[in-house]
C-alpha cells in the first residue's frame, strides 16, 4: 500500500510540475508578442461610470464612440449624464500603450454649444488602461484625485 501511495504521489507531483511549466511557457508566449499604440486602431464604443469626490459629490455615466489612430491619438463624440445634467461633447485625446498591454491616456471632452449653454464645461482626465483580447477590449480607470471612475471600451 505504501508503494502504491508513493507511486501515486510521485506521479501526481510530476503532473503538477509539468502543468506549472506549461502555464509559465504560455504566459511567456503571450507577453512576448508585445503591445504598442498600434494595438489600438479603429472605432470603439466606450462606457464609463463614476463619482466626483468631495463636498457635493456627483455620480455620472457616459457613453462615447471613439476612434484610435494607432499612433497615439483618439477622437470621437459622446454623451454624459452628470448628476442629471446631460452633456453632449466632442472627445479628443492621446494614449500610450506599453509592451505588456498596460498604458495611459488623457481624454478631453468639449461640450457642444447647447450643452455649454446648459452649464457643461470642458473636462480633461487621465486614465490608466489595460488591453485584453488582442486589442478588442480596453479596461480603464480614472487616475485623478477628484473622481473615482472605471469603464470599458470595445472594438466596434
Largest sheet: 8 strands, antiparallel, barrel
Shape descriptor: globular
**Order of strands in the sheet with most strands:** 1-2-3-4-5-6-7-8
Q: In percent terms, what proportion of residues is strand? A: over 45%
For the record, the CATH architecture of the largest domain stands as Beta Barrel
Low-confidence stretches: 1-32
Q: What is the residue-averaged pLDDT?
A: 85
CATH C-level class of the largest domain: Mainly Beta
Our count of helices gives 2
> What string gives the helices and strands in order?
HEEEEEHEEE
Tell me the radius of gyration. 22 Å
Termini Cα gap: 61 Å
The helix fraction, in percent, is 10-25%
> Could you tell me the number of beta strands?
8
CATH topology of the largest domain: Porin
Strand and helix layout:
Blueprint: H1 2-32, E1 41-52, E2 59-69, E3 73-82, E4 85-97, E5 102-111, H2 113-117, E6 123-132, E7 137-142, E8 147-155
Antiparallel strand pairs: 1-2, 1-8, 2-3, 3-4, 4-5, 5-6, 6-7, 7-8
State the main characteristics:
156 residues, alpha+beta, Porin, 2 domains, 8-stranded antiparallel barrel
Describe the protein in words.
The protein is of the alpha+beta class. It is 23% helix and 52% strand. The protein contains 2 helices and 8 strands, in the order H-E-E-E-E-E-H-E-E-E. It has helices at residues 2-32, 113-117, and strands spanning 41-52, 59-69, 73-82, 85-97, 102-111, 123-132, 137-142, 147-155. An 8-stranded antiparallel barrel has the order 1-2-3-4-5-6-7-8. It is globular, with a radius of gyration of 22 Å. The protein starts with a helix and ends with a strand. The model is unreliable at 1-32 (pLDDT under 50).
Amino acid at each position: 500500500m505504501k508503494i502504491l501511495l508513493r507511486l501515486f504521489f510521485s506521479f501526481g507531483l510530476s503532473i503538477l510540475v509539468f502543468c506549472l511549466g506549461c502555464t509559465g511557457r504560455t504566459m511567456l508566449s503571450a507577453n512576448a508578442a508585445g503591445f504598442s499604440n498600434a494595438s489600438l486602431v479603429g472605432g470603439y464604443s466606450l462606457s464609463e461610470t463614476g463619482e466626483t469626490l468631495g463636498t457635493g459629490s456627483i455620480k455620472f455615466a457616459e457613453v462615447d464612440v471613439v476612434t484610435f489612430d494607432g499612433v497615439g491619438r483618439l477622437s470621437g463624440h459622446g454623451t454624459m449624464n452628470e448628476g442629471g445634467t446631460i452633456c453632449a461633447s466632442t472627445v479628443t485625446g492621446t494614449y500610450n500603450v506599453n509592451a505588456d498591454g498596460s498604458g495611459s491616456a488623457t481624454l478631453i471632452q468639449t461640450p457642444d454649444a447647447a450643452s455649454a449653454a446648459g452649464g457643461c464645461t470642458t473636462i480633461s482626465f487621465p486614465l490608466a488602461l489595460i488591453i485584453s483580447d488582442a486589442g478588442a477590449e480596453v479596461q480603464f480607470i480614472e487616475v485623478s484625485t477628484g473622481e473615482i471612475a472605471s469603464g470599458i471600451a470595445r472594438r466596434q
